[in-house]
């Protein structure tokens, strides 16, 4: 099992939106987000991005990279990746996975393909999944929660992503050099 996802439960990451898109480049992902080319700040490490784009100066800080045939976007401010328009654009002609963690304890997972929601659910309650199906991740999570309970639900979810898709977005990737864009509302 991968422990590279362990950061999702750490207090350093109280809220975030992570979107994974199969077979897209990081540049295509930013284009799907509607980021104008002049708003792309280049490739930056996390410390550089936070220094260049302080919280009080930008509303949206989108950091994107590529892993094992997938691209990902990471946002820890006001996320655009959770909006209907971005979700539909990003999932056009591909499959996407989205993990959202709210500072209030609300978490969300969604899997889409070609603009259609296949499954969406709160990881603590995967039995209430909605969407067109198939309900791959919600069924896996239902089985796991029977054995581990709800306290480690985000760990169970990210382990299922690793096991089914071979993807791990670890701390080093998030801290490292990523294509970075900053937007103001």
In the sheet with the most strands, the strands line up as: 2-8-3-4-1-5-6-7
The stretches of 5 or more residues where confidence is low (pLDDT under 50) are: none
Number of helices: 6
The biggest sheet, with number of strands, parallel, antiparallel or mixed sense and barrel status, is: 8 strands, antiparallel
Helix content: 25-40%
* Tally of DSSP β-strands: 8
Gyration radius (Cα, Å) is 16 Å
Shape: globular
Order of helices and strands: EHEHEEHEEEHHHE
Average pLDDT confidence is 92
How much of the sequence is in beta strands?
25-35%
Structural class by sheet pairing and helices: alpha+beta
CA(first)-CA(last) distance:
40 Å
Give a concise summary.
The chain is an alpha+beta fold.
Topology of helices and strands:
Elements: E1 16-22, H1 26-33, E2 40-44, H2 46-52, E3 60-67, E4 70-75, H3 84-91, E5 95-101, E6 107-113, E7 116-121, H4 136-148, H5 153-165, H6 171-175, E8 178-183
Antiparallel strand pairs: 1-4, 1-5, 2-8, 3-4, 3-8, 5-6, 6-7
Task: Describe the model.
- The chain is about 30% helix and about 30% strand.
- It contains 6 helices and 8 strands; from the N terminus they run E-H-E-H-E-E-H-E-E-E-H-H-H-E.
- It has helices at about 25-35, 45-50, 85-90, 135-150, 155-165, 170-175, and strands at about 15-20, 40-45, 60-65, 70-75, 95-100, 105-115, 115-120, 180-185.
- The chain has an 8-stranded antiparallel sheet, with helices on both faces.
- Helix 4 crosses helix 5 (about 155-165).
